[in-house]
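User: Design a sequence. Structure:
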């Protein structure tokens, strides 16, 4: 932790169909993961809301693991599931920095980050 944040971060991820309509309804969930050399870390899971968004709280402690001790910037990707089955996986976003500070005020500026919208082809 940089001392200015609590070590808890929020990833807001949005999914939509190929027509641009939000994916919503029962059965949709999203898992945030950190890609690592040996085993990818699961950082959190949330259901999609009516706007096709999921808000996932991520603890810095979950980013660190045996194969990435001291890691503070996850190589983040999201797994979209419907009724427990993966239907889409995003590309990996490398070295996501949740702990950036404003150079003037020193206040945290990226503890909440938005990702997407990701367009998902449901016809495959």
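Assistant: Done.
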């Amino acid at each position: 932790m940089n001392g200015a944040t609590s070590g808890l971060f929020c990833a807001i991820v949005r999914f939509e169909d190929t027509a641009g309509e939000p994916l919503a309804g029962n059965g949709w969930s999203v898992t945030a993961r950190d890609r690592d050399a040996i085993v990818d870390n699961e950082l959190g899971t949330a259901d999609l809301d009516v706007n096709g968004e999921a808000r996932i709280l991520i603890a810095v402690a979950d980013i660190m693991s045996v194969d990435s001790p001291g890691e503070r910037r996850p190589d983040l990707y999201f797994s979209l599931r419907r009724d427990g089955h993966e239907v889409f996986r995003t590309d990996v976003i490398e070295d996501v920095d949740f702990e950036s500070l404003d150079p003037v005020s020193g206040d945290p500026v990226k503890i909440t980050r938005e990702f997407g919208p990701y367009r998902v082809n449901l016809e495959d």
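The mean pLDDT is 86. The chain is about 5% helix and 40% strand.
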